[in-house]
Each structure stands twice: as C-alpha cells, then as structure tokens.
Amino acid sequence: SLAGSLGVADKTVLALDAHGGDQGLAVSVPAALAALAEDPCLEIVLVGDRPELESALQTVPGSAVGSTHGSAGPPAGREAGTRLRIVHAGSTIPMDAKPAAVLRRGRDSSLWRAFELVATGEAAACVSAGSTAAMMTVGVKLLGMLPGIQRPALMAYVPNRSGYTGMLDLGANLQVSARQLAQFAVMGSVTAQEVEGIERPRVGLLNVGHEESKGHGTVREAHELLLGLPLNYVGFIEGHDIFDGTVDIAVCDGFAGNLVLKSSEGLARMLLGEFRKALNRNAMSRMGALLARPSLRRMLAHLDPAAHNGAPLLGLNGVAIKSHGSSDRKGTTRAIVEAGREARRQVHKRIETSIREYRLETAA
Fold first, then answer.
1. How far apart are CA 88 and CA 83, in angstroms?
2. Percentages helix, strand, coil for the chain, rounded to the nearest 5?
C-alpha cells in the first residue's frame, strides 16, 4: 500500500503540478503551504523546475523543504515545511497543446512527472491547474482507465439554493453514448456518497424537458438504463433544477455541461458586479450595505468559485484533481485539500466496484 511504502500510515502524499495554471508558482507554492497548514495529514510533492521552486519557497517564511533529491519519502518533522518535497521537471505543457504533442514531447513536463508519482505509488493523487485535455491524455496514458470504463468525466460543484450540485461531464467528452452517461451517473453518485457524505444522492439527467418523450435518442436510452439501476435516480431535469437544488448530481455530456458551467459563471460575475454597483450608488445604499454586511458576506462566500474549486477527473485508475486555470491561492488550496479527501476515501476503487456490480462495463 501507499502508506506502507512510505512508512507513514497516517499521511496522504499529493503530487502538485506547480507550473500548471495561469499564475504558476505565484499561486501553487503559497497554496501548497496553506493546504499543509489546513490539513496536518498531507504531504505535498511540488513538481517543477527545482531552482525556480526553491527560489519561490525562499520568499515564504518558514517554508524550507526537506530533501530535494526527487524523492517523495517520509518527512523529517511535523512542521509544514518538512512535509514538502521537490521533484524536478524540465518543462511545462502549454495550455493549447494537442494530445499528440503531449505524448511526444511532454515526458519531462511537470504534469507528466506528477502523474508518474501516482502511477508508481509515491503519491496518492495528482493536482493540476493545467490543460484539461493534457490531464486526460497523460492520466489515461500513465494511470489507465478503471476496468469497464471507456472515458473519464470531469466533475465540479456549482452552488444551488441550499448547497451545491455536482455536475458531470464538464468538457472532457463532447459526444457520449447512453451507457457512458449511465456510468457518469454512477461515478457522480459514488463521489457524492464517499466525499460529501450524502447517503443517497439524488441523480438527475439533464434534458430539454422533464417529460420522457423529450430529448434525443441518447438521453432517452440513458434514462431507461438509469431507471434499472439501484441509484436514487429522479429522472430528467432541466437547467434551472441544477440551481434550485432539485438534485445532488446532474449528469450530461461535456458539451452541455461546459456551456452550463461557463454560462453560470458569467452570469454570477455580472450579477455580483451589478449588485456592488447598486450598493455603492449613493449614501443611502452604502448605509444599507453596511447594515446587511454579514448576510452579504455569507452570500458571497457561497457563490465564490474558490470555495468549491477542485474538479475530480473520474474514471481513471487513480485520483486526479483539476484546478481552475485562473484559480487564485484560495481556490488552489481548496483543490489540494479536496484531492486529499478523495485519495483517503479511495473513490476510484469504489467506483470500480459499483460499475462492476451494476454491469455497466463498456466494451473497449
């Protein structure tokens, strides 16, 4: 086991692609330290250019790392700095890199080496804010797919009236089969159970209407498959149901999921911007904002994308978490902590068991 190979039974080792994302080390290094402070059971392997990483760490008080010989071995002490390791990588993968180029020229990249640590058992999960396509390509190459699952799915949480709704797929697969949609439903349900502690997650299939006659053939076929599974499947849902909190898990193909997610993010930014302008329009509105400050803070915290950053790439034979490319320190910290939670609960193994029990394997 991982714990046994490391000799530290209560630790969870994560490999962080330190150069991934729009801001690179300026965000990943302080986020790694913040995650270590938040979760005392984490160890983090910073994967990237060693001189650059060491220089970045020197600017953060108390962040001196232990051995930097490329090992993800046990820590020297309990302080956050001693739970950091560096593994050198000589290059990075551009955000617009094509899968073929990633496979040809990406073997010395920070993303590739982070996934290698998971593949060899030196880390329990990989975290990156890099390209989704590159993560899929490298993840499938080095970790492989769970038995019976043909395609991975990206899952993230969006705020609803009472909490959050998990949605998948969010862009990893633009075209899917009915059986693959059913697999997404199982993967999302298992994740909600194991990570969020929801006993019987309500699962809905995104469609253009609630009626069984609505939608194209693929979603109707997936609907029939889901009716025969021991999930808490509530049937077809529409877009507004995601934000009303009607379901805990919303299932769709990557084309629809990405449109819903990006549209909701844009709408939220617009509404919050208009709200702030209204509150600063005159002295009376500013006074009202002052009186409503506690409620406003709770609302903004609920809507803040950083509060629920960290999208698992489900279906891989291992744990991989995608952080938003433009994520700040707070959001990246959340993605790292989320990776630790999923790694401890062995979500991918539980997904494999459920897919086999439900006889939802897809032929290669």
1. 17
2. 50, 15, 35
Assigned token pair, 184: 């997404």
Q: What is the mean pLDDT of each run of 10 residues along the chain (364 residues)?
A: 44 94 89 94 95 89 51 42 89 88 91 96 95 92 91 90 91 89 94 90 95 91 94 95 94 93 83 80 79 72 69 94 88 93 90 87 59
Contact 313, 154 (CB under 8 A): yes
Tell me how far apart the alpha carbons of residues 116 and 70 are, in angstroms, rounded to a whole number. Answer: 12
Residue with the two structure tokens 């220089």: 55
Total residues found in the chain within this entry: 364
Q: Which two tokens stand for residue 298?
A: 């709770």
285 in Cβ contact with 296 (< 8 Å) = no
Q: Which amino acid is at 146?
A: L
Please tell me whether the peptide bond between 253 and the residue prior to it is cis, using omega within 30 degrees of 0: no
Ramachandran bin of 152, using left for φ above 0, alpha for ψ from -120 to 50, beta for the remaining angles: beta
Q: Name the residue among 28, 263, 269 with its Cα closest to residue 129.
A: 28
Question: Side chain identity at 86, as an amino acid letter?
Answer: I
Radius of gyration (Cα) for the chain, nearest Å? 21
